[in-house]
Amino acid sequence: IHVRLDARDDEASIRENNDLWPGLFVQKITDDIRKKMELPGNISGIIVGGIVQGSYPQTAGFRQGDIITKINNNKIDSILDFYRELNNTGKEEITFRIYRNGREILLGLVK
C-alpha cells in the first residue's frame, strides 16, 4: 500500500475556493436532530449542516438546516444516495426537493 501525506491548505484559502463542489456539508438526520427541529416522522432525507460562503449552493439558496429529500426526483435516504446523485455523470442540471420550515421547495443547480 502506498500512502501520500500532504499538508492541507490554510482555512482562508479553503473558504475562498469558489470552485468547491458541492460546497455544502450534509449529515444524517439523527433522532436528536429530528427532536430539536421538530421534524414530522414522515420526513426523511439528509440535513444541510453547513454551507461554504460564496459556493454554488449558497447562491442557489440553500440554508443550514434544509432537509434534502430528493435529488432529480430520486429519494435521498443517506449521504451515499446524496453523493451518488451528485456524481451522476449524465446530469448537467440538478434539482433538489427541500423541506424547510414545514414547506417543500425546489432548488436547482447546474454542474
Walk me through what this model shows.
This protein has 111 residues and is α+β, with helices and mostly antiparallel strands. It contains 4 helices and 6 strands, in the order αβαβαββαββ. Strands 1, 2, 3, 4, 5 and 6 form a 6-stranded antiparallel sheet that branches. The chain is globular and about 45 Å long.
Task: Please count the helical segments.
Answer: 4
Q: Report the end-to-end length measured between terminal Cα atoms.
A: 34 Å
> Could you state the oligomeric state of the chains shown?
single chain
Mean pLDDT: 83
Comma- or semicolon-separated keywords:
alpha+beta; six-stranded antiparallel β-sheet; 4 helices; globular
Write the layout of secondary structure elements.
Layout: H1 11-15, E1 24-28, H2 31-36, E2 46-51, H3 56-60, E3 67-71, E4 74-75, H4 79-86, E5 93-100, E6 103-110
Antiparallel strand pairs: 1-2, 2-3, 3-4, 3-5, 5-6
Summed up:
With 111 residues, the protein is of the alpha+beta class.
